[in-house]
Amino acid sequence: MASRTVCSGAVLGSLVLALAAGPAHAAPPRPAAAAPAALPAPDTAALGRLLRTALSQGAPGAMARIDDHRTSYDDHATVHKATEGVADRVTGEAMDTADRFRIGSVTKTFSAVVLLQLAAEGKVKLDTAVNHYLPGLLPDDRITVRHVLGHRSGLYDYSYDMFAATVPGFEAVRTKVFTYRQLVTRALKHPLTHAPGAAYAYSNTNFVVAGMLIEKLTGHAVRTEYQNRIIGPLKLTDTFYVHPATAIPGRHTRGYLTPDEAGTPLVDATDQTASWAQSAGALISSTRDLNTFLSALLGGGLLPAAQLAQMERWMPAGTGQAYGLGLRRRDLSCGISVYGHTGAVQGFYTYAFTSKDGRRSLSALANTSNNGAVHQTMLRTLESAFCGKQTKLRGTLTRLRPAARTDDLAE
Ligand code: REY
């Protein structure tokens, strides 16, 4: 704590008031003109219908939690919780919003926050080459820290090859422990997909490199940095980085991977090292903690204004979407934009987004993956949570958008 400029000193106290008064470390305060109009009330009936639709499309269970914060990220002033189906297909235990789960690539936002805090502390420069910090790691000295955090490096995504066959690919790595270098080596068997900086192309390899940077710059495991910089200060008591342990600690939902072959039974994928993902996707959390995290981040409680602004320098990243640094913007059909990430590790689809000021957050989960229909349905929970009651036309527009690799997860 003491060594950090971003979150040191009065920060614990100021974090609590971050949304109310602006954080003590962020100067100058954000202008009042930036405050958006109040959001429409969530359409909770539509939210429930969507979760039931996800079940009809093959998810054993689904849940969502919306937090409307009046003053600060930990003032859970108005909370809406919705659950459908089961957390455990064997015991029949019902899904509960208190259940922990694997958040997949929402981990990337945590990794980006750590690196941007390090940038605020002057320990890393966004436009400096990765090879300056990790000599000889990458084949092109033009790849910068910013390229990596914005998926603009051109580094091939090693997970394409790994999971070309979904269930055999998963079972081959379920108990494996990889070093970061082994994952990067797999990616480097392929040429760069484009010149550094030239295009956006989502790749887990980028956030493996981000993990390596965090460890090199701090001398600590990423687990320690997540804990000291985010989990501890925000009191995220459901959030864990247990790699390479295979179990989700405490109360949790199990996750069920959908095989590629239609009609084949779901595979319980709950227990795995998630070593193939690490700083790109191995965190465990809950809907409450994810809402707290994103509300704190957009509310200015985790980064100084300058670094949050870097995180929100948007590059086009698919229809109605843009990507900043470890953070996605989704432009909803009602004209409201939301900020966060999605995640997919085997058995778990996660959706975590917040409003521009962080005052309303939605986290949703379906306990299956590799099921495009469920994914499209769950994406629509954003519309229910942030747009309120919708006309049919707006719903149709969202429904028609094809799932693409521009999402934060592999197809
Ligand atoms: C990896 C495959 C997806 C998941 C991925 N996840 O890149 C990162 C993320 C961490 O974005 C798997 N799909 C599934 C396949 C497709 O195996 N053949 O859907 O569980 O969260």
Descriptive key words:
single chain; alpha+beta; eight-stranded antiparallel beta sheet; three-stranded mixed beta sheet; binds glycyl-L-alpha-amino-epsilon-pimelyl-D-alanine
Walk me through what this model shows:
- With 411 residues, the protein is α+β, with helices and mostly antiparallel strands.
- It is built from 16 helices and 13 strands.
- The protein has helices at 11-16, 18-21, 44-56, 106-120, 130-133, 145-149, 159-162, 166-173, 180-187, 204-218, 222-231, 287-298, 305-311, 372-379, 381-387, 392-400, and strands at residues 61-68, 78-85, 101-102, 256-257, 267-268, 284-285, 315-316, 321-323, 328-331, 337-345, 348-354, 360-366, 368-369.
- The strands form 3 sheets. Strands 2-1-12-11-10-9-8-7 form an 8-stranded antiparallel sheet, with helices on both faces. Strands 5-4-13 form a 3-stranded mixed sheet. A two-stranded antiparallel ribbon has the order 3-6.
- A hairpin with a 4-residue loop joins strand 8 and strand 9 (328-331).
- Helix 4 packs across helix 11 (222-231) and helix 4 (106-120) crosses helix 13.
Topology:
Blueprint: H1 11-16, H2 18-21, H3 44-56, E1 61-68, E2 78-85, E3 101-102, H4 106-120, H5 130-133, H6 145-149, H7 159-162, H8 166-173, H9 180-187, H10 204-218, H11 222-231, E4 256-257, E5 267-268, E6 284-285, H12 287-298, H13 305-311, E7 315-316, E8 321-323, E9 328-331, E10 337-345, E11 348-354, E12 360-366, E13 368-369, H14 372-379, H15 381-387, H16 392-400
Parallel strand pairs: 4-13
Antiparallel strand pairs: 1-2, 1-12, 3-6, 4-5, 7-8, 8-9, 9-10, 10-11, 11-12
The protein binds glycyl-L-alpha-amino-epsilon-pimelyl-D-alanine.
